[in-house]
Write a structure and sequence with these properties.
Elements: H1 2-21, H2 29-34, H3 41-52, H4 55-69, H5 74-103, H6 108-115, H7 119-151, H8 156-204, H9 208-216, H10 240-252, H11 258-265, H12 270-295, H13 318-323, H14 328-362, H15 372-395, H16 401-425, H17 431-451, H18 457-478, H19 484-491
Helix pairs in contact: 1-8, 1-14, 3-8, 3-11, 3-12, 3-14, 4-7, 4-12, 4-14, 5-10, 5-12, 6-7, 7-14, 7-15, 7-16, 7-17, 8-12, 8-14, 8-15, 10-18, 11-14, 14-15, 16-17, 16-18, 17-18
Length: about 500
């Protein structure tokens, strides 16, 4: 217990110290929200990765999907790495930085408002962000409950309040730079932690080959496999169709999440884009691939602790059950790992929520003549407000972690992914097509909560994103176009010439 507590308090002390050291960077709105658009490749890449993966992935998703799909759940992690990280950086990174800088947009709703010349779009987008980031923040704490119950004798409520308070302190004091530096530190912890845990868990089962052999002998409970053993070690697992839905939501979804895309706004230069692409992809392979690979062995730890009173499986208990037999020092590492993942994501979410609500909804709409000092003060107050709401929801969460995250990701990515992507690349994207995507993404997600026309909220979220990608171009072709001169002026930012060294690009003509 002493070793675990020392690790915990040392971790918290470092997070607060970072906030204090970088507080000078948070004296302006641009510095507080974007780090002055001067963030280097390592910090940006780790900020992207640690905001991506939280306790939701490590405890909720790894446990649930590892149980359902076995070792094939590793495909989810690889999808996160190559679609959610590599392709996101390659396709969105540079263009997002260029256009948002040109438009002087600080948030995703601000981008929609300026790109499509529609203040109403900005207000609607900020409302969607405000509403649907709340269940996501609650899910972060939910993933910690069982781990703290396993590792400490401290009441879970106390741990939640402590984590929330400390996250709030360093974000309020240091703004985006504090979150970026802490994300880097937390990312290093996550890399070493997940590697150590995988090795320890496999050793507890007699090694990798012995664990795979035992897993292969377990008959599948999925009807399509007719109870045949070996399904949980097969290439695509027992249920490849639903597995694909999870890959789509958790990978492609990052392209439309405001707290993820926000990282591209802050990129410093071209080197940061190129280096950040490589770093974030490697980080995702290790963290996401490692989490889902570990979860794939969940059925080897089938014991009474993972079942509820009614006999149903409690997916959130699977990973804690796997880790409960580890040595105390490794359990301490696990707690720090999950805290790192959760606090980095929480800081990103509350910063995104507070900045969006302040700059896109309150400024000029509710509060007139809102100077920079008032904007900073409002954002800091809203950070406290959002953290308080997340704590209240976390103390008595309404459903499983994966479902909470599925609802949040489905609505946000379903509403934003298509208009953001088309808005960066296609001049003919119209205002009404953006409205159609908002309605489609939120509508599918919310209706599915009540009608359940798609059994899994994960698949509902994937359907919402795909629907948006289809709806936006169709509606754009039959609705009034934006002013051509304005749109050409916006896209002119891509054509500005810059000078680079020969090792970057060869000249058109040799002298």
């Amino acid at each position: 217990m002493a070793a675990k507590l020392i690790l915990l308090f040392a971790f918290f002390a470092v997070m607060i110290l970072v906030g204090i050291l970088v507080r000078k960077s948070a004296t302006s709105v641009d510095g507080f929200v974007l780090g002055g658009r001067n963030v280097g490749p390592w910090l940006t890449a780790f900020a992207f990765g640690t905001s991506y993966f939280s306790a939701v992935v490590f405890v909720g998703y790894a446990g649930q999907f590892g149980w359902k799909y076995g070792l094939a759940s590793t495909w989810i992690g690889l999808g996160n790495a190559f679609i959610g990280s590599l392709m996101a950086w390659v396709i969105l990174g540079r263009r997002t930085r260029i256009m948002t800088h040109h438009l002087e947009a600080a948030t995703m709703p601000d981008f929609f408002g300026k790109r499509f010349d529609s203040p109403r779009l900005r207000i609607a987008a900020s409302a969607i962000v405000f509403i649907f980031l709340i269940p996501y923040t609650a899910s972060l704490y939910n993933g910690l409950s069982r781990l703290f119950g396993m590792a400490f004798d401290i009441p879970y409520v106390v741990c939640v309040i402590l984590m929330a308070a400390l996250t709030g302190v360093y974000v309020i004091v240091g703004g985006y730079m504090a979150t970026a530096v802490n994300d880097f530190i937390q990312g290093i912890i996550m890399i070493f932690g997940i590697c150590a845990i995988i090795v320890a868990v496999l050793q507890s089962q007699g090694g990798f080959m012995a664990a795979v052999r035992t897993l292969a002998e377990i008959p599948s409970d999925v009807p399509v496999t007719a109870g045949q053993p070996g399904a949980f070690t097969s290439f695509f697992g027992p249920d490849p169709v639903n597995l694909l839905g999870v890959v789509i939501l958790t990978s492609l979804g990052t392209w439309g999440l405001p707290q993820m895309v926000h990282k591209f706004y802050t990129i410093k230069n071209e080197k940061a884009v190129q280096t950040g692409t490589i770093i974030s992809t490697i980080f995702a392979i290790i963290i996401a691939g490692g989490c889902y690979f570990l979860g794939g062995f969940g059925r080897l730890f089938d014991n009474p602790s993972i079942y509820a009173a009614n006999g149903n499986i409690t997916y959130d208990a699977i990973v804690p059950s796997m880790l409960s037999t580890l040595p105390d020092i490794l359990i301490g590492v696990v707690v720090i790992l999950v805290l790192s993942a959760s606090m980095s994501t929480l800081s990103s979410l509350v910063l995104t929520s507070s900045s969006t609500l302040t700059l896109d909804l309150l400024k000029d709409n509710v509060i007139k003549d809102m100077d920079e000092k008032k904007q900073l003060k409002t954002m800091r107050l809203l950070i406290v407000f959002f953290i308080a709401i997340s704590v209240i929801l976390a103390i008595k969460p309404p459903t499983f972690i994966a479902q909470l995250m599925g609802i949040s990701w489905g609505a946000l990515a379903g509403a934003f992914l298509a208009p953001f992507l088309y808005g960066l690349f296609w001049k003919k994207t119209t205002v009404l097509s953006v409205w159609a995507s908002f309605i489609c993404g939120v509508g599918i997600t919310v209706l599915n909560m009540f009608i359940k026309f798609i059994a899994s909220p994960i698949n509902a979220g994937a359907a919402a994103m795909i629907a948006g990608l289809i709806v936006v171009p169709i509606v754009s072709l039959v609705t009034p176009k934006l002013n051509k001169e304005k749109v050409d002026g916006i896209f002119a930012c891509y054509d500005e010439e810059v000078q680079v060294k020969r090792k970057v690009a060869l000249p058109e003509k040799e002298m």
